[in-house]
Design a protein that fits this description.
The protein has 101 residues and is mainly β. The chain has a single domain, classed as Thrombin, subunit H, CATH 2.40.10. The protein is built from 1 helix and 8 strands; from the N terminus they run αββββββββ. A 6-stranded antiparallel beta barrel has the order 1-2-5-8-7-6. It has a two-stranded antiparallel ribbon with strand order 3-4. The relative contact order is 0.21.
Length: 101
């Protein structure tokens, strides 16, 4: 599976519980005011794209942890064909140390 081979290790936080998953987690690429250069191009400061495993929903996730950084999910969706979920998609914003964006 692509996520197992190329995905990053992230933790999904639900209250005190944490679940480790492998997911694609990268800065969002876009050209607009308030951007910063990254290895993948220009990205809005603090906005990230999450593509995660079908088996792990995002509905009740309070925060996402990646490499010591904390993110809040802004939007999330489940992508499915028929009754089968293919993956979970989300846009996340990095949070400061006080828990705000």
């Amino acid at each position: 599976m692509l996520l197992e081979q190329y995905g990053q290790e992230v933790e999904l936080c639900r209250g005190e519980a944490r679940t480790a998953v492998r997911a694609f987690f990268q800065p969002v690429r876009e050209k607009a005011v308030g951007e910063e250069p990254t290895a993948l191009g220009v990205a809005p400061a603090g906005k990230w794209l999450y593509l995660g495993p079908a088996a792990e929903g995002l509905e009740d996730v309070d925060a996402l942890l990646w490499k010591g950084r904390r993110f809040q999910l802004i939007r999330n969706r489940e992508y499915a064909i028929g009754r089968e979920t293919l993956y979970h998609w989300a846009v996340a914003m990095e949070m400061d140390e006080e828990g705000g964006p």
